Amino acid sequence: MIIGSNQPYLFPYIGYWQLMNASDIYVISDSMQYIKKGYVNRNYVLLNGERHRFSLEVVGVHGDTPINEVKVGNNSRKIISMLSHTYKKAPHFDSAFPIIESILQNDEKNLAKYLGNSIQVIADYLDMNTKFMYLSDMQGETSLKAQARTIDICKRASASQYINAIGGQELYDKESFLKENIALSFLETGDVNYKQFYNEFVPYLSIVDIMMFNSKDTIKEMLKVYTLV
Question: Whole-model pTM above 0.90?
């Protein structure tokens, strides 16, 4: 059993989807602290040939509020309008935009569930077989933090392997996992390059950008462009 996990993000970049696709179970870490000015509710798209950051409005953030206690604001229509204007001439707009629009029009006000729905919808579109679970449903209230909490997740799910993004090398120690008979690997995304409009390629954008410029089958091939270290 392979487990992956991370905080829920708004339309995350391709590496996030590679991690999910490589996992049998993917844990949406909804009970972790919401970080102001972080990327839980923000991402980048292509606008006039350059990176453009957009943000989903949130309300109810006070101090160390967990993600699953934050509420969704009221600017989704503005984001829909911006994305429509930005990508209306993209080659796969007609297939991708209705999916993105339906996600943004979701009436769910709990930020974690709103983002969780967006993850599930796109995962279904990409034919992923991954099972998604929320951290709060697996652990409830716990005093465990960081690595100890992740190891606890793996043990609860009877995992033999845990995969994390490459940035997790600073957070997790392979020996600590091995003591619990769990292999620890880090996913490093390879060179994912594709034609956008007529601009020089702008990397590390949201999955929205990838969906607008690439077919479903091409994206499914992109999910395989990584190495485990």
Answer: yes
